[in-house]
Predict the structure.
Amino acid sequence: MEINKRSALIIIFFLFIGFFIQSTFAQRMGGLPPGSISKRILISNGPKGPIHGGESAVTDMILYNDGWVYGSTKATWGAENCHLFRIDSEKSEHVLNITSKLPGQTAITDLDTGPKNVIIGCTSTYNEIFDDKDNKYEGGHLFSFNPQTKECTDLGIVAAGQGINCIAADTTRSIIYGVTYPPGHLFAYDFNTKSIKDFGEIMTPWRVKDLGRVSWRGVPKVLMIDDAGTVYFSTYYRREIKITAQELMKGGTTSFSSNEGGRIYRLAYGGEKPVFTGAVIPTQTGMDSDPLYENGIASAVRAKDGGFWCGTINDGFLFKFYPSTSTVINKGKAFQYWNLKSLAYGSDNRLYMLGGRDYDNSWILCYDSITGSIDCLGWPDNTTQCGVICADKEGRILIAENLRHSFIWVCNISTKR
């Protein structure tokens, strides 16, 4: 009788342990439906491979017409090399060490499909280098890569001592637009004539040191181009507010700067100066006085009706912007965290979104245009920090980490509907 009681207690104990492990694993997997993640592919190749640890933080991915998804990396934790790679959701292949072609460039910050069916990329370096008064950084490069011929062409430095934060290519007119970092200048590069036009400062960035990391806030993260060749971006309007007589202190300032973010500007093809469209992105009002608050567009993807789906930085709103009418339609937000930093269409025609703070857990969300609902689906892993998502040729969602040793998660959730 005593043995039976003991056996029953042991069975109950192990059942409890099993339930606890199962619950913990479910929490760790973030609630994504079972079987959603079919594969996890490591980008770095180890100490003897072409992509070392510290060189595999993924910065961007684009689907090319040969069926491969091409991606870019940046160096972290003092590493020096950045790379191009490609992935087909089964394996990853190293394509090119960009730093070996462009010495001193430690980050590929953005990719786009450019004129003549080449991939256009841009480079930058560590924020700590920009913060060094003895900075000897030569400047960020534009480059092109032809996946068919494997030829990489240096298109030159855009601005001495400045990196490039983002680019967008007008393939019809062979113009590449970009924004420098940290100064925040808009420029255009003519792919045919190789000439560069600087449109001047479109945002006066402010330096922020948060958790020991230095960055410059307010610099546009994304550019959008419509069929007419007009480029759109979000920026800040800065105004000086006088301090009331009652608040004045002896020897103190008489005014303070107020930043009002989320203003969408446009530069027409052939234009000389960007102008305000009158459109303002969804905003949690009253927050712009916080030095850590940055209200702008973090990500954008072309919608099927000619507009653009956009995600905001700090607030995490999803909205649609129609360039033809300068209309903003707010679709709301599905979770409490900020930063909708990447968007992609799945094979089910739903819009998938990557949300979460830069140095925190990453969440996967989706928007169904038929029902108008936004759902928070969970995360791949509770230690995963991701920077970009992209759909492969089958419509599967690839989720890329931006850590020292980065994985790409192959997610089938868009194919299981």
About this structure: Helices lie at 2-28, 98-101, 127-130. Residues 2-28 form the longest helix (27 residues).
